Amino acid sequence: MSGVPVLLITANVGSIFEEPGVMLKIWTEEFLSTVSRLDPKFIALHCQEVGGKNYEQSMRHVEDFVRLLMSSEELRLFDKVTVFLDEDFSSAEHFTALGNFYFIHESLKDVLLWDFKEYKFIPVHGKEVHSGNIEAVTTKEKAKFPQDFFPECKWSRKGFLRTRWNISGTIFDLINIHLFHDASNFVAMETFPSVYSKTRRRALEHTLERFHNDQYQTVPYFLFGDFNFRTDTSGVIKKLTEDTHENQLLSKGNISKLQFRNNDENLILTLGKKEFSHHEHRQVFAADGGQWLREYDRELEDFEGRLFEFPVEFVPSYPFEEDINQGSNYMQTRVPAWCDRILLSPTAKLLVENISSGDPVEYGIIGPTTCMGDHKPVYLRAIVSSDADMMEFNRNCDINGESLGNPKEVMCNSNGTATITRYIHIKHADSSVKIFRETTV
């Protein structure tokens, strides 16, 4: 079956702009090395915190970053490039610091990009960079989360940036997302899900609901960015502090640190608002490639059946040391977690699954031993079906004599929620047909 080799990458690049003279080159070399090894024909790079945390001073380095990528030998044959950079930090109600980079190989001729204003696809030609204030650019959809979602009651750079593509006859959305972080270890450890987890879940629910109910036809989507998903902090601490006792350190009447000591009074774990330090920090989180933490990685549980992820067999993507000599060590600030993810809608999963297993999916991190900043980029390399004709059936349509009913059925549940079922017809280039029933609540 024919298909297009695609490479999807999510990267929180904020910290590489803190030392751009050193980090931009290192980061770019690792990225380009991955591109060369995986040999994709379509690359989607979704970045968060473009310009860094001190974006007023470091946003000027973004141009150097773009130039490094677009002038590279490794991307020489990618003759079509479209970039969206949300850089206007003067507009607090709109600024997300998101950056979407798309590189299309010269061998791909049939490439179209959706215009969200004109409701139509337009051909992609040449190299185009949309930067600065991109509110008027109609080939993207961008939004910040509603202000009441922000846990500290102030604007933050959290939101999404969506594009829609028609690649070799197959239509899908690519969505860059940045969700809320954990501000305090003390708050995060109180319960699971924590207040931060609940805010992330609410924002993600809001986003998915928007995509299912907006004015555009529902299509398969790949959702990848910095979800800031964290492990169950309380559960991890309990695991690491078995057979210890707790001491509280006070400052001005408040707890400043918690210390956990064993029966010999050896310090095992120190916990502060922004400190998480195990006495064998490097060893404990390197054990089993960090896979022992997977049982505490639970924030996706609420989206089972709605969002799919390929098996995670790589180490937690955050928080790594920002020292170029400690590329594989974790900072002693937070419990290591898989913040950076690549998720698929059920129909997007079908687009990938219908390809022969002779070219399997690869899901991993870039630069496992190289300093890439506090986040390691996460990538998914897959083959996406060509000419997958996605459409919602007309009312009471049928195939092979089987009636499918209304293409969008709404059923009211006893608890007052509504279950929405869409029947989607996927026709592939080899004329095989699949009926997919997608249900959301």
Automatic annotation (TrEMBL):
GO molecular function, one term: inositol-polyphosphate 5-phosphatase activity
Organism the protein comes from: Microctonus aethiopoides
Record's protein name: inositol-polyphosphate 5-phosphatase
InterPro entries: Endo/exonu/phosph_ase_sf, INPP5A, IPPc
Family recorded in the similarity comment: Belongs to the inositol 1,4,5-trisphosphate 5-phosphatase type I family.
Entry's EC annotation: 3.1.3.56
GO biological process terms held by the UniProt record: phosphatidylinositol dephosphorylation
Domain Inositol polyphosphate-related phosphatase: 2-392
UniProtKB keywords: Hydrolase
